[in-house]
Specification:
single chain, 144 residues, alpha+beta, Dna Ligase, domain 1, 2 domains, globular
Amino acid sequence: MADAERILDRIRAAGGRVTGPRRQLVTALVDADDHVTAEDLAAAVGEPHLSTVYRTLDALEELGVVDHVHLGHGRAVYHLTDASHQHLVCEACGDVTEVPEGLFTSLARKLQADYGFRMRPNHFAVLGRCAACQSTQSTQSTPA
């Protein structure tokens, strides 16, 4: 509960109100074992108004507490920023692999230096094929 209270303190310090639904959503987010959608959080706390969930998640993102990530073509997912990481998603099986945050550092530097572009790699997933699906694909395409 200490993590949830720390986050709620940050909301208060930024001038936000800590309502019952916000408290429940923050607790559910802290207790989540994996990336969660806004719909997952709403269901976990019995919140009938999805707009309340999105407003809370937006406020938490502005405070730097959560990141929202697009893992392919589905809904955005959310996770706490205390364990910041990037994502690799297999287009074939949907497997999500978390990789260290600094993996894209050299690419980010190159984009900044060559194009004046500052990327946010934590906002998107890199799509491709995992080793298992590559192996399956090469086995299936090998002539007998």
